[in-house]
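FIELD: query
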Amino acid sequence: MDEHHPTVRMHLWLETEDGVFFGLGRLKLLESIESSGSLKAAAISLGMSYRAAWGKIKRTECVLGFALIEKTAGNRTGYRLTEAGVLLKDSYRRWLDDVERMALERGSQLLPCIPRKYVQDDEEPLACDCLANAVPAG
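FIELD: result
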């Protein structure tokens, strides 16, 4: 990461008094299950054990009161997202993207160096314009 171009990083999650039940990690887990059709493949791609992935899914299902994944018909090991799982995944992704966009917009108004979006390996970076001689208003 370029030290002269600040990057916005957001930590946004949902929790109960017992702890986190949904955040970016679980979002990525659902997205990976959706793309691979496998909980095991999703867990491996995210560097976690099958048991840890299963536990995270079950914890979230317990808090929410509905299933996020279900067995694929005719496949012993395959999984797919339930309708509720797809809705949660899509809604959380939109919420996260909206919050990040608003944080970037506000950061560019208040900070002397316009921050850029955090970019994962498979994404294209956004342009960043540094205002080296910016003077804060007020």
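FIELD: remark
The chain has one domain: 7-117.
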